[in-house]
Amino acid sequence: MTPTLVATILIAYFVALIVMAYFTSRKADTTTFFTGNRQSPWYLVAFGMIGTSLSGVTFISVPGKVYVEGMAYFQIVLGYIIGYIVIAQVLMPLYYRMNLVSIYEYLLERFGLVSYKTGAAFFILSRTLGSAMRLFLATKVLQLFLFDGLGVPYWVTALTTVALIWVYTFKGGIKTIVYTDAFQTIFLVGSVILCTIVIANALDVNFMQLFDKISHTRTATGQTMTTMFHFHDPDSALFFPKQFFGGIFIAIAMTGLDQDLMQKNLTCKSIGDARKNMYSFTAILVMVNFLFLLLGGALYVYAQQKGVDLPVNAKGMIVTDDVFPTLAFGEFGTWAGILFLLGVTASSYASADSALTALTTGFCIDFLNFNRREEKEKNRYKLFVHIGFSLLFLLISLIMYVISSQDLIGLVLKVASYTYGPLLGLFFFGILTKRSLKEVLVPVICLLAPTLCYILADHSAAWFGGYQFGFELLILNGVLTFSGLYLISKKPIVTPSLAESV
Length: 502
Known about the structure:
Elements: H1 3-24, H2 30-35, H3 42-69, H4 73-98, H5 105-110, H6 113-147, H7 154-169, H8 174-202, H9 207-215, H10 240-256, H11 259-265, H12 271-306, H13 323-330, H14 334-367, H15 375-402, H16 408-419, H17 421-432, E1 436-437, H18 442-463, H19 472-487, E2 489-490, H20 498-501
Antiparallel strand pairs: 1-2
Helix pairs in contact: 1-7, 1-8, 1-14, 3-6, 3-8, 3-12, 3-14, 4-10, 4-12, 6-7, 6-14, 6-15, 6-16, 7-15, 8-12, 8-14, 9-12, 10-19, 11-14, 13-14, 14-15, 16-19, 17-18, 17-19, 18-19
């Protein structure tokens, strides 16, 4: 693919997004920006959430990880199913009943101002880091395969990327995002399917035969690439209970307690529509994740049979995050390169644009008391906050470019294990108990729990006979937060009724 072709595709893609933003943001006000006037079609929300949930990290890192872990990631995906059921049956009815704009307003109602601000702050920290890392991966791919060849420095690529997202989200907000994310998900899912077909055709096999070839190919650790379940080594981070239960709580935390994805759900007309959205989204997400794993196996089968040299680092180790883009641009022909480019762009921007909108919403509602401001003042503050988070995304992307990690999907989920744990503890303490909190100590507990988790994870192999923490670290973080909150809590004061006094 020539730089001119890549640039033409990207320009056409963003023109389509900006046109869509123009039509969806007409007559938009701050209510439209934050809630979409609660008129979003549930099926559109469900489909668009796929792009938001997966991101460019999933698009590139999950296929790459098959070389190391086989299809073990599917254990986490199975856990997601249970987590999404909990969201649909427990959390979403709560949010709809309270008619929330920011889901962290629940903590204000249940505990008080300090808990509310603490929960909102942890969301902002987690979503900012996670979304900026996801965006970094897309800009890195564009830099490697387009802008390096044109002599454009990375900071210009990152700045342009963030600026484009800001342009098509700053006015319409969540209403625009519902439509643009659905549009981008079409390219994400379509590119995975079509790239897999391209590889199957190149190997002269059908889908079933391709799966059979993958099942006879070995990972770096010697297992077959279709190996999904790991029951034999409790110390391993891939042990099934760690992955499955970790997946449950990752789904609850990163979707049900995340303003980004819940904001989309809350744009539906009713709780019934929101549940239809969640269950449809779950079914599609499971299928798409399996396709990503199938694609990952296909990449390594192709490389092995065609004798293709895979990208390696200075130590001679395969850089798994670079395998898919390298083969897509260098081996599969122009059409596959176009499909990959559209897929990684769609997945990355669908995640980053909704995160930018959610962060703006969260900060405005949770920290700037928007409900008490006039419309003109709201618009001014919203603009400044939107620009501020855009610049923060840019800064983190530049830092990530310097300290780049090979396995970003693992890094994103690891960061989530530390930052979403306090949210799990806070919300479930509120839902499962009726106790009140000594609020001044809530931030201390919410900082102490992830700190203890970090110490335990860092020393687990030495302290616990080789045991390695996986995604169950998120559960431990939530449990420690819950336990700490219990220690600073007390039973609610119940005022006796007149009849009881007599």
